[in-house]
Amino acid sequence: MSKKIPMRQCVGCGEMKGKKEMMRVLKTTEGPIVLDVTGRKNGRGAYLCMQAECLKKARKNKGLERSFKMSIPEEVYDSLEKEFEGHGAE
After folding, report:
1. What letter would DSSP give residue 62?
2. Cβ distance 13 to 50 under 8 Å?
3. Please, are residues 35 and 23 in contact by the beta-carbon 8 Å criterion?
4. Pair 51, 15: CB distance under 8 Å
5. CA-to-CA distance for 11 and 66, rounded, in angstroms?
6. Residue 26 near residue 36, CB atoms below 8 Å
7. From first to last of its 90 residues, what are the pLDDT tens digits of the chain?
């Protein structure tokens, strides 16, 4: 019996991929929006492909805003981009 792979949709490109292949962006109860590398932290999560391109698309089409039902300041996107680069995303 094969294990079912949990699928998640990228808020940037809209593609469905396995949860393990994606980056989880997290809105914590305290408010800050961070990159959840472990995928285990508590909070509302949105998923992005491991490409910086998808983060740019999410920024343009307000994918994270829709997921978290709130407006997201530019500096949050800037810090996500920096974190993305730190995790070896192309």
Report:
1. T
2. no
3. yes
4. no
5. 9
6. yes
7. 677 888 999 999 999 999 988 989 999 888 788 888 888 888 899 999 988 899 999 999 999 999 999 998 888 889 888 888 776 555
